[in-house]
Specification:
single chain, about 350 residues, alpha+beta, Aminopeptidase, OB fold (Dihydrolipoamide Acetyltransferase, E2P), nine-stranded mixed beta sheet, five-stranded antiparallel beta sheet, about 30% strand, globular, AstE_AspA_cat, hydrolase, hydrolase activity, acting on ester bonds
Length: about 350
């Protein structure tokens, strides 16, 4: 039977607090990989929330039938602080109102899975830092750590620390991922990097990589929330847990070999707006484009003959994502393009986006 606890995060001002439901499923045997899955660290990204909602009954059934061989922890909505952050009726959810920091940045990077040194809820630090410490305490020690997110308008893709590849082809295949982005140096302290940090000293050929999995899963775009997609994503997550031996289910076929290759983060082109204005897109996620091809037009001066500014592909490749809003300021991200060579324009270390 599912074990539910409610973690309480003390507020920064008297009389306030946040509650974080945590669901645990206990294994009947030992030795199988344990798993931790969370969604909505960016609180307005809901495809992962509904996928976990559909996955939970499947985990409960496996536990009840004695087919759960590794412990599984599920945090269906990992950020109760951001869940309530609305501005003029629009849900924000990505950046803290307190610090203006991305909620998926600045996680502590530990050398081991020992979390005893992380601040507790009585520590004199902001609630968002205590929440991040709480999430790490829940996650570290699990063999499989999946952080479910989504993009604006997007294909289904995953981020993977380089040493985990190609051992995580089974996850990409299970989820039907259309791209894999591999990074090596830093993701600016994202949750994924914090979950990976204790294993940084392992050599790339260490056999432990085959048992472990750490990833950020981007479940398409923010508007891709439907019963059909929730069910498909839940089945994909379940298939992965079966493939890794966390769940025993003879009725689930092993995932097919994922056909693609991981794209190094250096090869991702962040196509940015040269001017502010209204956006007309000429390509969508999933399109393959050639170098110099028109991918967007920004109308900076409507009604004027010279009011349009063309945006072209800096190299040939696959359009992975595009902006959901159709207005932009100068310098803002319009698209991600996966190229075959390192980007000549995107050179900063760390995460692709703020």
């Amino acid at each position: 039977m599912v074990e539910k606890t409610v973690e309480v995060v003390r507020g920064d001002t008297p009389g306030t607090e946040w509650r974080l439901p945590v669901l645990r499923f206990r294994a009947t045997g030992g030795g199988a990989p344990s798993a931790y899955l969370q969604a909505a660290l960016h609180a307005n990204e809901l495809p992962g929330v509904v996928a976990l909602h559909r996955l939970v009954p499947m985990l409960a059934e496996a536990e009840r039938d004695g087919r759960l061989l590794g412990d599984v922890t599920v945090v269906p909505h990992a950020n109760p602080i951001a869940a309530g952050e609305h501005l003029f009726s629009e849900h924000m959810g990505r950046f803290s109102f307190h610090s203006r920091t991305n909620y998926n940045r600045d996680f502590p990077l530990l050398d081991t899975t020992d979390t005893s040194g992380l601040p507790g809820d009585d520590a004199p630090v902001a609630a968002e830092k205590r929440l991040k410490a709480r999430l790490l305490k829940l996650a570290l020690g699990a063999d499989l750590v999946l952080d479910l997110h989504c993009d604006d308008e997007s294909l289904n893709y995953i981020y993977v620390p380089a040493p985990f590849w190609p051992h995580m082809r089974d996850l990409a295949a299970s989820l039907g991922s259309e791209a894999v982005l591999a990074w090596r140096d830093s993701s600016d302290g994202a949750f994924e990097e914090a979950a990976y940090a204790p294993y940084r000293a392992l050599p790339d050929d260490d056999p432990d990589w085959r048992r472990l999995a750490v990833t950020t899963v981007e479940l398409r775009g923010r508007a891709d929330v439907s019963p059909e997609l929730a069910e498909a994503d839940a089945l994909g997550l379940y298939r992965f847990l079966v493939a890794r031996g966390t769940i025993r289910d003879e009725g689930v076929e092993p995932p097919a070999e994922w056909p693609g290759e991981a794209t190094p983060l250096d090869n991702v082109e962040m196509i940015r707006a040269p001017v502010g204005g209204a956006i007309l897109f000429h390509a969508r996620p999933g399109d393959r484009v050639e170098e110099g091809q028109l991918v967007a037009t920004v109308i900076a001066s409507p009604g004027e003959a010279e009011g349009e500014v063309a945006v072209t592909a800096p190299q040939a490749g696959l359009i992975l994502t595009r902006r959901s809003q159709r207005s932009t300021r100068v310098g803002e991200d319009l698209m991600k393009l996966l190229g075959s060579r390192p980007s000549a324009t995107v050179k900063k270390p760390g995460a692709l986006e703020s």
